[in-house]
From TrEMBL:
One of its GO terms (cellular component) is mitochondrial matrix. Keywords: Chaperone, Mitochondrion, Transit peptide. This is Mitochondrial zinc maintenance protein 1, mitochondrial. Residues 8-59 form the Complex 1 LYR protein domain. It is found in: Mitochondrion matrix. CDD domains: Complex1_LYR_LYRM7.
Length: 114
């Protein structure tokens, strides 16, 4: 059996780091995401035919959390307050023009609000 390109431990670490970045100020959601990751890794502790696919799935989830998930927050007790997006440096930013370049990796250097 060929060894997967990323070990399960490495994928687990990537997933934990991604949850820390994505859910930075939301302890309840951070804890739930980490518990879910731990549960899924514990359920699939034994090496099987689809182990490589499961490891790749964990890495893809980590990439999704790191690059595509933005959290919104507002003041605790103020229901009429505006929502603020917590956008960090690793969030993928783009516009409809990036669709035209196809599979090329494009880095956009402008703010989302412009």
């Amino acid at each position: 059996m060929a060894a997967p390109s990323v070990s399960a431990l490495s994928a687990y670490r990537q997933l934990l780091r991604a949850t820390r970045l994505a859910f930075r100020d939301d302890f309840r959601v951070l804890l739930a995401a980490r518990q879910e990751a731990r549960k899924n890794f514990d359920e699939n502790r034994r090496v099987g035919v689809d182990t490589g696919m499961k490891i790749n799935h964990a890495v893809e989830v980590a990439n999704l959390l790191r690059h595509n998930l933005v959290q919104g927050a507002r003041e605790q007790d103020n229901e009429s307050a505006k929502w603020e997006l917590r956008i960090h440096d690793e969030i993928e930013r783009g516009d409809n023009d990036t669709i035209k370049v196809g599979d090329k990796n494009v880095k956009i250097h402008k703010a989302c609000s412009s």
